[in-house]
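G., the chain you wanted modeled:
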Amino acid sequence: MQKLGRKDKFTHLLVWKINRISRNLIDFIEMYQELQKRHVIFVSRTEQFDTSSAIENAMLRIILTFAQLESEMTSERIHAELNFESKHRQLEQRAPAIWIPL
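Predicted structure as tokens:
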């Protein structure tokens, strides 16, 4: 898609939701600036915004900031769960204690 865009093969980029195209703010801004240079219109199917005004550009960045936050929080939860499971498994794999009644 990026190769076609660089060759000016399309005039619009349509996405279902903004966070589906990128969850990283810096990556999205770089892509969005390239779209602007090539006069490609960015359209989100579910979010209504017009990126021609300063306030709408700011709203776009806010939406992407929350998308990146959501992605990072999901990653943290997954790592915490894997860490917990790893420690829990280590406890289960220890040799059982032998209890000898007196």
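The chain has four helices and two strands.

Shout if anything looks off.
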